[in-house]
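Minimal example, chain plus S-adenosylmethionine.
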Amino acid sequence: MSEPCSKGELRLCRQLALEGDSAASFLAALKSGKHSRSALVLSPRAAADYQPPFPCINTEADPNWAWLPPRVFIPEIAGCKPASYDDYREGKYYLLDLSSCWESAPLSCVPTPSRSLDLCAAPGGKTMLMHGRYAASEKHVANEVHAARRGILRQNVELCGLPRLEVTGLRPDQWASSGELFDLILADAPCSGQSLLAKGIKNTGCLGASMVNGNAKRQKGILLAALSCLAPGGHLLYSTCTYTTEENEKVMAYLLKRHPHLQAVEIELLEPFRSTLCSFPAYRLLPAHGFGAGGFCCLLQRN
Ligand SMILES: C[S@@+](CC[C@H](N)C(=O)[O-])C[C@H]1O[C@@H](n2cnc3c(N)ncnc32)[C@H](O)[C@@H]1O
């Protein structure tokens, strides 16, 4: 007999328009906790022709992986432990959840920025991905408000040898009043982290209204501040690792309504993941897609 669903689970399924078998398999994925999937992001310490010392999936030939960022490998064997190799300890690659790589796919539509800001950067996964795409960028700032997490971010970028990267610790409102402008801002926002459940990580209250609404409010604040630093023509990439619409499509709809000069950008590579829960281009990943625990992303451009 299947387990009874909580109010939060039922509310989420209804919100995501999941019914019958698709609702049952979504909830089973959350309960199984088995949807964690690792990816390797090569650092500048790995040569251009570097190959990981264990078998990896041949993603190049497979159109299902067309969205995968450059210099990212997916270990082939489920039991393979990429963190146990010297190459990892030497910073040749960084380990990241595969869904985080997926969330960065819209960057394929963004030309090399001269100035970029990763506003919520620790522990540094998206910073590594940004650096992989835009090594030629003039200025790349990785910002993290929490001191302890900023320390981890610093260690990671040092280990992986990211040159010319500035690590800062300003709050979004301090950035807003700094007068600095960036062509690309990444806001991988703090969120209720519902996808942690699908990775087998306990996250009490993440389906509850107070956690979700509190995060949505904070996300809007972070994004409004980020917009003050966005240069005309610049891009803002928003991402979360949670499923609820309040923290995803509704946050984007709020910004688009308040700022008519913003436009959500169509990402051709992510067309199979296009959200049907809003009228503008935004993308969501669920465990059923097979690329990790899931997430959300939406790329905005300032006209
Ligand atoms: C989802 S994590 C970022 C993960 C990171 N981008 C990566 O790929 O490794 C969100 C980050 O936002 C930071 N954060 C929390 N509250 C914040 C706030 N009010 N403003 C800005 N950042 C905040 C957290 O400390 C956390 O490091």
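Residues 209-228 form the longest helix (20 residues). The longest strand covers residues 230-240.
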